[in-house]
Specification:
about 350 residues, alpha+beta, 4-stranded mixed sheet, 8 helices, about 25% helix, about 25% strand, globular
Length: about 350
Amino acid sequence: MNKTRIRDYGIQMGTFPCGPLNAITDVAGVTVGHCTIDTPDSKTGVTVILPSQKNIFQKKLIASSYVLNGFGKSTGLLQINELGSLESPIALTNTLNVGLVQEGLVDYMVSRCEQEQVPIHSFNPIVGECNDCHLNNIKKRAVKPSHVLQAIETASQDFAQGDVGAGKGTICFGFKGGIGSASRKLKIGDTWYTIGILVQSNFGRTRDLEINGFPLGEKVYKEIEAASQDKGSIMSVLATDLPLSSRQLHRILKRLGIGLGRTGSRVGHGSGDVMLGFSTANVLESDSDFQTFSFLNEGNMDLAFRSAIEAEEEAVLNSMVAADTVKSYTGETRYGLRPYLERYIQEII
């Protein structure tokens, strides 16, 4: 069996059931696409999350963001928190490519709106980033606007994880990091809802890594090119079909830090820890004077908190388990986690 997710080893995070794909795309309408650049010089790429198959500029979704530690260069967060809405796909890339990826999102949305005869004179593109300079010659700025369009064109429900797209050059706890995803289902009344997470992992000190409470990093840090500091960054994107207000989303996003902590993160000085979230349950219609929504009763928020924490922890571990060993443009090697996990699996379980 090709074991490429943490559950393939019999390790389950928490008690909530996962969706059929155990990914952010278990939320109906959400798709994910990558464009990976893998050359001797460039180990990087772009990952795009499409929150809806409809024109999201015209059919906006309720959204929020939360910055746990602000050592990052994301765009669009200011307007999301001011208006509580999302009008753009969410793109992830490397630090020095944020501007070019933003240009790609603008090209995409302008083109789509023109085709659908939707007026567009302002647009809030959402781009998140991690610094992949250890494996990728980041100064080359290899990701172009055309790569964003390629990622959007290939977006699907069943997408690759690990060292792909924006995760091609990232490092997590000194091992190869990447793109990881997980989902949880929660029942409120008679209805099941889904919370899905996607991460771009690029953080953590090797000795701090824990899996299911087991100190794996402490066991193996002398064997690899260990990360001696907790720095780098992580982008976390939450999607849900649970009816939530922007304020409620913000509350859930703050709890994702607990999921990071369960993997060993200490939210170090040099780590940009940024969370974005949106709900597909309510659509903001631009041509209405008033809008009426249903929102979750606050008494049920604990269910959302706990399921999101579980999905965050598992998404981070999936980003590492799915990743293969990658050698950088300078010859530096970052090893995939799987062989080290397999050595201690009986103790972890």
